[in-house]
Request: fold
Amino acid sequence: MFLPLLLAAAALQPVAAVRVEFDRRGETAVSASGWADLAAERAVTADDPVRVASISKLVTAIAVMRLVEQRRLDLDADVSALLGYRLRNPAFPDTPITLRLLLSHRSSLADGVDYVLPLDADMKTVLADPKAWDAAHAPGAWFHYTNLNYPVVAAVMERATGERFDRLMVRLVLAPMKIAGCYNWASCDEASVTRAVVLYRGGQPVKDDNRGARPACSVTPASDGGCDLAMWRAGANGAIFSPQGGLRISMRGLARIGRMLLGNGTIDGVRVLRPASVRLLETPLWTFDGSNGDTGSDASGAPSGFQCRYGLAVTFTATEMAGCRDDPFGDGRQRIGHAGDAYGLLSGLWIDPAAGRGVAYFATDAPSARGERSAFSRIEELLARP
Reply:
């Protein structure tokens, strides 16, 4: 696929677009067009790290599964024991909250409070606010996509290991897979920092306009404006490194994540996950039945059918259920992976385990034109299909 011509023909002109197709053995096609940094007139490449938004959740879940394999975490244990305080929905005080519920957006947490917390925030206080919870639905009874779930997951990971979340992600996932990525820049190498993709909205930079240097503060500053990461304490604030959306990774790196999943947990001879863990990731935990969750909303607020099946930070496409429009490929084949949408960026990582193929892509300053065959945007439909 010649990407610039395809986007031009569809009258879609993002600032940058990159797409990598792959199979179990390696990359099969690479396309890149546009600018990683408009001010510097730096062309984008498939090696440039970009903030992939919610695909970060899937990569976080891979690290969780590694800790489960090491018996340092239990998907079905009450997370209160590790957090050091009682985590409960005030409306359902007798129902434990588990990692399985948090990862699958069935914990009954809701984004009624801000999940982007300052460096010195006390997450225990944030989670004690009744506005952080869905008072109408008990944990396990309802799917509602909620970013706040993932700072809680990160806090549990930190308490189980004593390690800072961003460093833990490098050790458990990125370094073993030879991926030069990081969460919120602090643990990225200098070469990656200089290649950052700037995110734009309406032609204006809105994220990672770092001018080729490491950001002065790679996280949300403390309430007094300070940025001393030495104040980090394991599990006190799992939001610091944005486990829900803060991964910076190139499309070549993201394709390696997909190849590992296609390889049943291995890539280039290195085992990252056991086959049983991959099978868990490939298993839906929630499927929309018409009345058991929120599938997303369109511009008018009506149900969109964007998400109709979900597992441990994994989205499943092509759900055969009335009201579901979750197939950007348009061919009815089930794929698994995750989409991302933030700061003018749209991204996707999708694999077809049966065919042994996958695709990783992003577009910055992405046009908002609606898709023709799904609840995804038109540009996502174009980037998804071969």
User: Anything to note?
Assistant: The CA atoms of residues 328 and 381 lie 5 Å apart.
